[in-house]
Write a structure and sequence with these properties.
126 residues, 5 helices, Arc Repressor Mutant, subunit A
Length: 126
């Protein structure tokens, strides 16, 4: 979603935000109307972002726990790479607090979920 499209979407829904804010303001006049409108707008923006994140989670073949493991592994490898140290897979598993068996299983899940390009694949005998 481009920034200009998002702005258009927000502006097109501002009348609804204002109507709801006025209704609430009548019930709670001690609260500033502008504060309700601002809060409603921010809530609307977060809901757009939330809907996009929900969609990404829906289409992701891996559970969040595996994605979290992947991020932690990548961060750990990057930290040690900048220090000039190369870690063995067993050391990475230990640092992440998982058994070697579980570590291999998680890596297999990540690899299986990665898209492959038909243009990068090689044909045996070529």
């Amino acid at each position: 979603m481009t920034a200009s499209y998002r702005e258009e979407l927000i502006l097109s829904h501002m009348p609804q935000v204002r109507v709801l804010a006025r209704r609430l303001h009548r019930r709670c006049p001690q609260v500033e109307l502008d504060d309700l409108i601002s809060t409603g707008t921010i809530g609307f923006i977060h809901r757009i972002r939330g809907a996009m994140l929900d969609y990404l989670r829906h289409i992701d073949p891996l559970p969040r726990s595996v994605r979290r493991f992947q991020k932690q592994r990548d961060l750990l490898i990057a930290q040690f790479s900048t220090a000039g140290e190369i870690l063995s897979e067993a050391r990475i598993a230990q640092a992440l607090g998982v058994s070697s068996r579980k570590y291999v299983m998680l890596l297999q899940m990540i690899t299986a979920a990665e898209p492959i390009s038909i243009f990068e694949s090689t044909v045996a005998g070529s």
